[in-house]
Amino acid sequence: MTDTERTAAPREHTAPAAGTRGRPRLRGLGGGLLWAGGLLLLALSVAVAVTIGPARISVVDVWSAVASHLGIGEARLSPIRDGIIWNLRMPRTLLAAVCGAGLAVCGTVMQSLLRNPLADPFVLGVSSGASTGAVLVVVLGVGGGAISLPAGAFIGALCSFALVMLLSHTLGGSTDRVVLSGVAAMQLFSALTSFVVMTAADAEQTRGVLFWLLGSLGGVGWTDVWLCSAVLAVALLVCLGHARTLDAFAFGQEAAAALGVHVGRTRTVLLCTTALLTAALVSSAGAIGFVGLVLPHAARALAGSGHRRLLPVTALAGAVFLVWVDTLARTVLDPQEVPVGVVTALIGVPAFVLVLYRTRRAT
To answer: Of 301, 114, 318, 348, which Cα lies nearest the Cα of 232?
Structure first.
């Protein structure tokens, strides 16, 4: 019996059957080991990824620099090497981990809410809205210099999501209406972005905007890391608080309502949470696709379908995945940098085809 079935099952008989008294404890132990292993793998991935680049840096140098800045030990590196680690590579690598975790969590929640294995964070048009907001700031100078590119992207993402919610509510509010409204908003804001770039941008602006739109973690700082980390922490807590509700949605909206779930309110809260998280991540790192589509399916193979266990595992898997994707993107054609979204697309498209094939076989 799955976690979802346990949520839906009657609770009259709570005594465990003979021979099964140890299973919950073993299962919890397995989940703890899985999370501990994921955290260890993430820490090692970050430490090793920071060492990769033109400047020769060891893992010991990384730990020394981190300990020094945390006040644990004394700095034993030159100012240049310390700056490369702490000011350049570490914030970029950590932001990659945060973005990977956030996008993967958003994909997990949306696939459960919409009951669509192909749903990802950009199905609501949030990415397209963020792209339009960024282009308006960079190309047309909206805000008169008072609004930065990340701020413009965040505002554009919120506007796009507001349009999606308005359209879906007007059309009835069902899950298929939400998806269709997201597709409409995505096409609208993509067209607006293309129109502005083609009519008002010069060659240099066009190249910079297009590079950012494809996903870029270059030039990020600690402010981006702290902001996105805070939004991720809040969003993850909200989603974990609704873990049993997400399990109930696996049976469909009618079954969830029969189990006492307030379907409309819950869906609105979780969709708003994922939209805000996606907007924050896109405003700092640009549009990075396929993470929210691919990683939830991989995490389910490891952790099962129960969301209390699935969400943390998905976050860790997404974080490790994007750390290494970003490392590959900035080193494979050194000194030229490949947009992160290009690499995730190259990896994600075959996985997308695999998901389509499995979905077709299941039907």
So the answer is: 318
